[in-house]
Amino acid sequence: MKRNETRKVKVGNLIIGGNEHIFIQSMCTYKTSNLKLLLQQIKDLELAGCEIIRVSIVDDADIKALHSIIKSTKMPVVADIHFDYTLALKAIESGVAAVRVNPGNLGDISNFEKVILCAKKQKCAIRIGLNTGSFTNPTVKALLDSAENYLKLAKKLHFNDLVLSFKSSDIKTTIKVNELAAKRFDYPLHLGLTEAGDISSSLIRSTLALGPLLNKGLGNTIRISITGDPLQEISACKELLSDLGLLKDSIRIISCPTCGRSQVNVLEIVDKLKPELSKIKKGLTVAIMGCPVNGPGEAKAADIGIAGGKNNFVLFIKGKVVGTYSSQEISQVLLNKIQEL
Ligand code: SF4
Known about the structure:
The protein is of the alpha/beta class. It folds into two domains: 9-243, TIM Barrel (Alpha-Beta Barrel); 252-340, Sulfite Reductase Hemoprotein, domain 1 (2-Layer Sandwich), CATH 3.30.413.10. It has helices at 35-48, 60-72, 85-93, 109-122, 140-156, 171-184, 199-215, 231-243, 266-277, 295-301, 327-340, and strands at 9-11, 14-16, 23-27, 52-56, 77-81, 98-101, 125-131, 162-167, 189-191, 221-222, 252-255, 285-289, 304-308, 312-317, 320-326. The radius of gyration is 22 Å and the shape is elongated. Iron/sulfur cluster binds next to loops.
């Protein structure tokens, strides 16, 4: 699938846009100055496959924490700032890779100008993030016209290190505004649905909104926001990209829902393996199936798969049976074999 061409924008050690890779990002849920919890969360997210991390900056204590945060991770750190442009200046001077601002809530437009000039001096990128929630008249046209005004100012100041995001909690609006934005502007787009809900709601809504856009070649970074542990956001992004053929080095698990025919515990194996497999960078399909009805077919078609029998599993690798293992040993055997592939 051909990706929409955009400018290339350097964000920390990453080049966003202008290539095939779609970067996964998430946002920390702890207050930024709560360093102990925050650093652990960043470490966990990075290990799970997060590539860009955003933190909220609400006061000087958060600014003070930025130095340790930037030092702790290879991921570009994006500072999310609202209302107080001076915090954006301080975050940029602290060395963040990007700031995410909505210029409309920074007060006078001259404040956004100061942020641009500071970012230009420090070689920091800016994400202009426009959400329908912060518009009194949140039409698609209003969002796009507003972006155009901010981009004109940036252009006047010869600043191009910009990423754009247009978010809504409404699926159709999110699709429409991003489709039109891609036609009107050539900056990379960050895709996401805002206020998407808890895991079950967000997975459905985000897939409905982001799937068609990604399928049309749009989007350079994504976030699937979930009310809950942000680690879930990473596996959701990976699954979405992987299922659309846009992520080559992640493991795709297919597993059956089980039914009265199954004499093994499929859920236990999926639960045990999923976190482990998410850390492995390989483009493989793994089938975990409950019985001999559909099990052998799916397991054979996958790169590696297991089909349940009577308290045991037949293991298939690249379509061939390689052995039968007990329910107790199968998870470890499967993990070892995947690591060897
Ligand atoms: S593979 Fe077997 S256990 Fe799984 S849903 Fe199909 S029939 Fe049921």
